[in-house]
Design goal:
This protein is of the alpha+beta class and 226 residues long. It is built from seven helices and eleven strands. The strands form two sheets. Strands 1, 2, 3, 4, 5, 6, 7, 10 and 11 form a nine-stranded mixed sheet that branches. Strands 8-9 form a two-stranded antiparallel sheet.
Amino acid sequence: MLNELRDCLRCLRTQRLTRKVEIIVVDNNPSSSLTPPIVAEFPEVKLINEQRNGASYARNSGIIRSTGDIIITADDDVVMPETWLEKLIAPLKRNDVMAVTGNVLPFELKTKAQHLFEKYGGLGRGYNQFEVDGNWFENQSFKSVPTWALGGTANAAFRATIFSNPKIGQFGFGIRPRHGILLRGDDIINAKLIQTVGGNLQQIQVNQVVLIGKDAGLGAPFLHGP
Protein backbone atom coordinates (compact mmCIF):
# COMPACT_ATOMS: atom_id res chain seq x y z
CA MET A 1 0.00 0.00 0.00
CA LEU A 2 2.81 2.41 0.85
CA ASN A 3 4.50 1.79 -2.47
CA GLU A 4 1.23 2.37 -4.31
CA LEU A 5 0.80 5.83 -2.82
CA ARG A 6 4.44 6.58 -3.61
CA ASP A 7 3.97 5.43 -7.22
CA CYS A 8 0.85 7.56 -7.57
CA LEU A 9 2.60 10.67 -6.30
CA ARG A 10 5.55 10.04 -8.61
CA CYS A 11 3.14 9.94 -11.54
CA LEU A 12 1.56 13.21 -10.45
CA ARG A 13 4.98 14.82 -10.09
CA THR A 14 6.00 13.87 -13.64
CA GLN A 15 2.89 15.16 -15.41
CA ARG A 16 3.53 17.30 -18.48
CA LEU A 17 1.80 20.49 -17.41
CA THR A 18 1.13 23.95 -18.78
CA ARG A 19 -0.23 25.22 -15.45
CA LYS A 20 0.55 25.40 -11.75
CA VAL A 21 -1.02 22.63 -9.68
CA GLU A 22 -1.73 21.90 -6.05
CA ILE A 23 -1.52 18.29 -4.83
CA ILE A 24 -3.36 17.28 -1.66
CA VAL A 25 -3.27 13.86 -0.01
CA VAL A 26 -6.06 13.18 2.45
CA ASP A 27 -5.27 10.52 5.05
CA ASN A 28 -8.43 9.25 6.73
CA ASN A 29 -6.56 6.69 8.78
CA PRO A 30 -4.07 9.03 10.47
CA SER A 31 -3.72 6.86 13.58
CA SER A 32 -1.67 4.39 11.50
CA SER A 33 1.09 7.01 11.04
CA LEU A 34 1.93 5.32 7.73
CA THR A 35 1.12 8.11 5.31
CA PRO A 36 3.24 11.07 6.58
CA PRO A 37 6.66 9.46 5.83
CA ILE A 38 5.58 8.81 2.24
CA VAL A 39 4.22 12.31 1.69
CA ALA A 40 7.39 13.76 3.24
CA GLU A 41 9.28 12.45 0.21
CA PHE A 42 7.29 14.94 -1.89
CA PRO A 43 7.73 18.42 -0.34
CA GLU A 44 5.30 19.99 -2.79
CA VAL A 45 2.43 17.78 -1.57
CA LYS A 46 0.07 18.95 1.17
CA LEU A 47 -1.09 16.32 3.70
CA ILE A 48 -4.48 16.61 5.39
CA ASN A 49 -5.71 14.36 8.19
CA GLU A 50 -9.37 13.32 8.14
CA GLN A 51 -10.44 11.28 11.17
CA ARG A 52 -13.58 9.90 9.54
CA ASN A 53 -13.10 6.84 7.37
CA GLY A 54 -14.50 6.68 3.85
CA ALA A 55 -13.68 8.02 0.40
CA SER A 56 -16.38 10.69 0.43
CA TYR A 57 -15.15 12.18 3.71
CA ALA A 58 -11.62 12.24 2.29
CA ARG A 59 -12.66 13.84 -0.99
CA ASN A 60 -14.76 16.48 0.75
CA SER A 61 -11.85 17.42 3.03
CA GLY A 62 -9.60 17.82 0.02
CA ILE A 63 -12.15 19.88 -1.86
CA ILE A 64 -12.70 22.26 1.08
CA ARG A 65 -8.95 22.92 1.38
CA SER A 66 -8.22 23.29 -2.31
CA THR A 67 -7.79 26.78 -3.74
CA GLY A 68 -8.20 26.73 -7.53
CA ASP A 69 -10.91 26.60 -10.15
CA ILE A 70 -10.66 22.94 -11.20
CA ILE A 71 -10.58 19.96 -8.86
CA ILE A 72 -9.22 16.61 -10.05
CA THR A 73 -9.81 13.48 -8.00
CA ALA A 74 -7.78 10.29 -8.08
CA ASP A 75 -7.14 7.29 -5.84
CA ASP A 76 -3.86 6.31 -4.22
CA ASP A 77 -3.86 2.92 -5.95
CA VAL A 78 -3.66 4.25 -9.51
CA VAL A 79 -0.85 5.31 -11.82
CA MET A 80 -1.20 7.69 -14.74
CA PRO A 81 0.58 8.43 -18.02
CA GLU A 82 2.43 11.73 -18.03
CA THR A 83 -0.13 13.34 -20.35
CA TRP A 84 -3.09 12.33 -18.15
CA LEU A 85 -3.93 15.65 -16.50
CA GLU A 86 -3.92 17.90 -19.55
CA LYS A 87 -6.00 15.40 -21.54
CA LEU A 88 -8.48 14.96 -18.70
CA ILE A 89 -9.22 18.65 -18.26
CA ALA A 90 -9.16 19.56 -21.96
CA PRO A 91 -12.98 19.35 -22.34
CA LEU A 92 -13.35 22.00 -19.61
CA LYS A 93 -12.26 24.60 -22.15
CA ARG A 94 -15.93 24.54 -23.08
CA ASN A 95 -17.93 26.59 -20.60
CA ASP A 96 -20.88 24.20 -20.73
CA VAL A 97 -18.85 21.21 -19.52
CA MET A 98 -18.94 21.00 -15.73
CA ALA A 99 -17.25 17.65 -15.11
CA VAL A 100 -15.15 15.09 -16.93
CA THR A 101 -14.47 11.45 -16.13
CA GLY A 102 -12.07 8.99 -17.70
CA ASN A 103 -11.46 5.29 -18.04
CA VAL A 104 -9.97 3.15 -15.26
CA LEU A 105 -8.22 0.01 -16.44
CA PRO A 106 -6.67 -2.88 -14.46
CA PHE A 107 -2.94 -2.80 -13.79
CA GLU A 108 -2.81 -6.57 -14.13
CA LEU A 109 -5.11 -9.57 -14.61
CA LYS A 110 -3.29 -12.42 -12.93
CA THR A 111 -5.70 -13.75 -10.31
CA LYS A 112 -9.18 -15.21 -10.55
CA ALA A 113 -10.50 -12.41 -8.36
CA GLN A 114 -9.09 -9.79 -10.73
CA HIS A 115 -10.70 -11.46 -13.73
CA LEU A 116 -14.06 -11.77 -11.96
CA PHE A 117 -14.00 -8.11 -10.92
CA GLU A 118 -13.56 -7.03 -14.53
CA LYS A 119 -16.06 -9.57 -15.85
CA TYR A 120 -18.85 -8.45 -13.54
CA GLY A 121 -18.41 -4.71 -13.78
CA GLY A 122 -14.91 -3.42 -13.17
CA LEU A 123 -14.19 0.29 -13.52
CA GLY A 124 -13.65 0.54 -17.27
CA ARG A 125 -16.33 2.33 -19.28
CA GLY A 126 -15.27 1.52 -22.82
CA TYR A 127 -13.57 3.72 -25.39
CA ASN A 128 -16.44 5.68 -26.90
CA GLN A 129 -16.55 9.29 -25.73
CA PHE A 130 -20.02 10.61 -24.91
CA GLU A 131 -21.80 13.43 -23.13
CA VAL A 132 -24.87 13.56 -20.92
CA ASP A 133 -26.98 16.40 -19.55
CA GLY A 134 -30.31 16.98 -17.83
CA ASN A 135 -32.20 15.55 -20.78
CA TRP A 136 -30.33 12.26 -20.36
CA PHE A 137 -31.44 12.14 -16.75
CA GLU A 138 -35.08 12.89 -17.54
CA ASN A 139 -35.16 10.27 -20.30
CA GLN A 140 -34.53 7.53 -17.72
CA SER A 141 -38.13 7.73 -16.44
CA PHE A 142 -39.59 4.48 -15.08
CA LYS A 143 -36.20 2.76 -14.98
CA SER A 144 -32.98 2.90 -13.01
CA VAL A 145 -30.74 5.84 -13.85
CA PRO A 146 -27.38 4.26 -14.84
CA THR A 147 -25.15 6.68 -12.96
CA TRP A 148 -22.49 3.96 -12.89
CA ALA A 149 -22.00 4.50 -16.62
CA LEU A 150 -20.61 7.98 -15.97
CA GLY A 151 -17.29 6.79 -14.58
CA GLY A 152 -15.85 7.18 -11.11
CA THR A 153 -13.87 9.61 -9.02
CA ALA A 154 -10.63 7.66 -9.41
CA ASN A 155 -10.32 9.60 -12.67
CA ALA A 156 -12.41 12.76 -12.71
CA ALA A 157 -12.26 16.54 -12.96
CA PHE A 158 -14.83 19.05 -11.71
CA ARG A 159 -15.31 22.79 -11.78
CA ALA A 160 -14.83 23.89 -8.16
CA THR A 161 -17.95 26.05 -8.30
CA ILE A 162 -20.29 23.07 -8.42
CA PHE A 163 -19.37 22.03 -4.87
CA SER A 164 -20.53 25.39 -3.49
CA ASN A 165 -23.84 25.16 -5.35
CA PRO A 166 -26.48 24.47 -2.65
CA LYS A 167 -28.44 22.32 -5.11
CA ILE A 168 -25.44 20.04 -5.59
CA GLY A 169 -23.16 20.16 -2.55
CA GLN A 170 -20.36 17.73 -1.78
CA PHE A 171 -19.95 13.99 -2.14
CA GLY A 172 -22.62 11.92 -0.38
CA PHE A 173 -22.37 8.97 1.93
CA GLY A 174 -23.75 5.45 1.97
CA ILE A 175 -26.64 4.01 0.00
CA ARG A 176 -29.88 5.98 -0.12
CA PRO A 177 -32.75 6.77 -2.50
CA ARG A 178 -32.94 10.26 -3.99
CA HIS A 179 -35.39 11.56 -6.56
CA GLY A 180 -36.56 8.05 -7.31
CA ILE A 181 -33.12 6.54 -7.90
CA LEU A 182 -30.74 4.60 -5.68
CA LEU A 183 -27.46 6.42 -5.24
CA ARG A 184 -24.22 5.22 -3.69
CA GLY A 185 -21.40 7.40 -2.44
CA ASP A 186 -19.58 9.09 -5.31
CA ASP A 187 -22.47 8.49 -7.71
CA ILE A 188 -24.57 11.05 -5.84
CA ILE A 189 -22.60 14.04 -7.08
CA ASN A 190 -22.95 12.94 -10.69
CA ALA A 191 -26.70 12.43 -10.50
CA LYS A 192 -27.35 15.72 -8.72
CA LEU A 193 -25.09 17.56 -11.18
CA ILE A 194 -26.96 16.21 -14.19
CA GLN A 195 -30.36 17.03 -12.73
CA THR A 196 -29.38 20.50 -11.54
CA VAL A 197 -27.48 21.92 -14.50
CA GLY A 198 -29.04 20.00 -17.38
CA GLY A 199 -31.38 22.84 -18.30
CA ASN A 200 -28.39 25.13 -18.78
CA LEU A 201 -26.71 22.78 -21.26
CA GLN A 202 -23.84 22.30 -18.83
CA GLN A 203 -22.76 18.75 -19.46
CA ILE A 204 -20.73 15.92 -18.02
CA GLN A 205 -18.30 14.73 -20.65
CA VAL A 206 -16.78 11.29 -20.24
CA ASN A 207 -13.26 11.62 -21.58
CA GLN A 208 -11.35 8.41 -22.28
CA VAL A 209 -8.14 9.00 -20.35
CA VAL A 210 -6.57 5.84 -18.93
CA LEU A 211 -5.73 5.28 -15.29
CA ILE A 212 -4.31 1.91 -14.33
CA GLY A 213 -5.83 0.64 -11.09
CA LYS A 214 -3.88 -1.65 -8.79
CA ASP A 215 -4.98 -2.63 -5.26
CA ALA A 216 -6.74 -0.83 -2.41
CA GLY A 217 -4.54 1.75 -0.72
CA LEU A 218 -4.18 4.32 2.04
CA GLY A 219 -5.75 7.65 1.31
CA ALA A 220 -7.29 9.78 -1.42
CA PRO A 221 -4.93 12.05 -3.37
CA PHE A 222 -6.40 15.18 -4.88
CA LEU A 223 -4.71 16.91 -7.78
CA HIS A 224 -5.98 20.43 -8.06
CA GLY A 225 -5.11 23.15 -10.53
CA PRO A 226 -6.33 26.54 -11.74
